[in-house]
Amino acid sequence: MAELFSDAWMKELMEAWNADPEVSNKLAEIGFNSVICCGFKDEENPRGVFVVEQGNCVRAGDWNGEAADWDMRADRKDWMKWVENGIGMAGMASAYMFGKLKFKHGDYAAMIKDPRMAGPFVKSFGLMQKIGAS
Fold first, then answer.
1. What mean pLDDT comes out for the span 50-59?
2. Angle (deg, nearest 10), helices 76-85 and 89-97
């Protein structure tokens, strides 16, 4: 099992993303393109990067200075809880409202109101649960 946000972990997430039509196909339908970064709240820079073009992840790995459209941060213990147990729409809303999940870049409120994006976003956390992490 790869370490959370490591190059290997991000590549596993890319494979799972592209193999899941409820994520990649749904986002392709709306022409979703984005640079998504992930990391920890107490660090200045993200750890991992995930580049999506037309709904499919075309590159993932260690963050190397890429400008983020979305930059999600949480404490390691919260990320690991979501990786181990998953998180649904209500849990996601609660995590955001109580500051457990922060967005340094990206408009969570606008995204969560758009079911074409909200569904795949929540499902992407399910992919994290599917691949696990150390």
1. 98
2. 170
